[in-house]
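Internal ticket #5521
Category: modeling
Description: The requester needs a full-assembly model to guide mutagenesis choices. All entity lines are attached below as received. Residue total reported by intake: 225.
Assigned to: D.W.
Attached entities:
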Amino acid sequence: GQQVMQIPQYQHVQEGEDFTTYCNSSTTLSNIQWYKQRPGGHPVFLIQLVKSGEVKKQKRLTFQFGEAKKNSSLHITATQTTDVGTYFCAFRTGNQFYFGTGTSLTVIP
Amino acid sequence: NAGVTQTPKFQVLKTGQSMTLQCAQDMNHNSMYWYRQDPGMGLRLIYYSASEGTTDKGEVPNGYNVSRLNKREFSLRLESAAPSQTSVYFCASTEGAGISGANVLTFGAGSRLTVL
């Protein structure tokens, strides 16, 4: 079935360090979405990328969609304790949405 | 504006018991979804309803049934619960494919189910 692999599964960083999570697909994707889930919470939409090579920024977060549209990354610059949570990539095909396995980020103060 | 509301938030069942998880959205969305979340496995799609009157299987439909009661409500039923169905269940909704806009999912707060 359709799936995306996400790495790493877990990441612990010192506050102020950078963090990156990667999402890889074996097939070309028409779009990629990123969601954040705080501990004990529910996933919340962050951003959607649709163009080859697209880069979008939200404050300290930078999202990229690969040239071949098979991979994507989320980079956080100078992490803060508020960045703690699990980050999921997802893609939509028709009416279905499929999610990666997620990267759990812990930020050590 | 409540968004997506799920009930119950917590439930403990014995093996073989049945129960229904309820979901309602007030955003006039066409499409609704049920996911389960297990450690290390991300969010897996159980069933979805692209529009009122239709339902389709997702990645892991076995052991579940769904009903799209009306445009607002989408319920998930476990007819005979098994320990493997212990999980956190999320309902989500979106405007629907072909509708202008970002077409992103809005999630409910989740229902934590334990089957003993």
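Resolution: model delivered.
Comment from assignee: Chain B touches chain A at residues 31, 33, 35, 40-45, 48, 50, 56, 58-59, 90, 92, 94, 96-97, 102-110 (CB under 8 Å).
Ticket closed.
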